[in-house]
Design goal:
By secondary structure, the protein is an alpha+beta fold. It starts with a helix and ends with a helix. The chain is built from four helices and six strands; from the N terminus they run H-H-E-E-H-E-E-E-E-H.
Length: about 130
């Protein structure tokens, strides 16, 4: 199974425990609200699991997908407390089909602000 197929399976199953097998040791997560890249498998898994438990709430769906040899851009949409969230996941993986880099961009500003607040609360709780 390719990294992209594995990612889609995690989203569909809402089983983020599988992130440990999917992420490379030096994976990097780039958040739409945190200024510096988060480096390492553990912190990348923490951010991805938190974001997806927040966003993958029954309204989450991918709208489009553009792929290259070892990367993809996936446009998504969902509703978060009445706010329409639209964004893209940019995913890169290595020859072993492990995700090496994951960048998220979100719009509009109202959605970014809501996501920032809720992710901050979620990450603070651990």
């Amino acid at each position: 199974m390719t990294a992209l197929h594995a990612w889609h399976a995690l989203i569909e199953a809402r089983d983020y425990a599988g992130l440990d097998d999917l992420l490379a040791e030096g994976a990097v997560f780039e958040s739409p609200v945190v200024h510096t890249p988060q480096v390492g498998k553990a912190i990348t898994a923490k951010y991805l699991a938190s974001a997806m438990s927040l966003l993958n709430n029954g309204t989450f769906r991918y709208l489009g997908e553009w792929t290259a040899e070892r990367s993809a851009v996936l446009e998504f949409a969902c509703d978060l407390d009445g706010i329409a969230v639209n964004g893209v996941d940019m995913i890169w993986w290595d020859e072993a089909d492990r995700i090496t880099r994951f960048k998220v961009m979100v719009r509009p500003l109202k959605a970014i602000n809501m996501l920032h607040q809720k992710m901050g609360e979620m990450l603070a709780r651990g």
